[in-house]
């Protein structure tokens, strides 16, 4: 009888612990998950130069995307801005460069990001990846990526680095086409 009571108490305590862990996970997801980004396009899709920007919604990421848009607003470069969850629908060969700005969640990047990068490793010279995390040091292995904390005051520094890498990729592409 006492043995059954102990087992019942242990099962009850384990159930409570599991429910608390699930509640904490739900709270964390609600508190820290990224907003979805509305699709946006700048300039004509028929442009000679197409750039994809896959991002997530946060003030820091929006500031970076705004800086990139402002840099290219007078050019004829087509910018296609999507949420990172839409990456599985993207054909990398339609773009000269791909910028991915994502948050490191639950110890890893979003599955859509890792799957997209894994699928397109043969075109990794087109990729510019910025991973944000609490520590600011996490990034996907095998990719020349940037990493940092989501501090809005630093957005222009990251924007400048991304734009410089974009310009380098676009110049390299033009050089290859002229040969």
Automatic annotation (TrEMBL):
Protein known as: Flavodoxin-like domain-containing protein
Top-level taxonomic group: Bacteria
Keywords per UniProt: Membrane, Transmembrane, Transmembrane helix
Transmembrane regions listed in the UniProt entry: 7-28
Classification lineage: Bacteria, Pseudomonadati, Bacteroidota, Flavobacteriia, Flavobacteriales
């Amino acid at each position: 009888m006492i043995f059954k009571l102990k087992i019942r108490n242990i099962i009850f305590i384990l159930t409570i612990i599991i429910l608390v862990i699930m509640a904490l996970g739900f709270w964390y997801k609600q508190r820290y998950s990224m907003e979805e980004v509305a699709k946006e396009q700048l300039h004509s899709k028929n442009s000679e130069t197409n750039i994809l920007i896959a991002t997530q919604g946060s003030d820091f990421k929006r500031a970076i995307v705004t800086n990139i848009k402002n840099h290219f607003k007078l050019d004829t470069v087509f910018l296609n801005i999507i949420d990172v969850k839409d990456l599985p629908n993207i054909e990398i060969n339609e773009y000269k460069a791909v910028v991915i700005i994502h948050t490191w969640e639950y110890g890893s990047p979003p599955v859509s990001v890792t799957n997209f990068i894994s699928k397109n490793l043969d075109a990794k010279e087109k990729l510019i990846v910025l991973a944000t995390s609490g520590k600011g040091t996490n990034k996907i292995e095998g990719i020349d990526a940037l990493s940092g904390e989501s501090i809005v005051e630093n957005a222009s520094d990251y924007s400048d680095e991304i734009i410089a890498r974009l310009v380098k990729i676009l110049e390299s592409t033009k050089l290859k086409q002229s040969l």
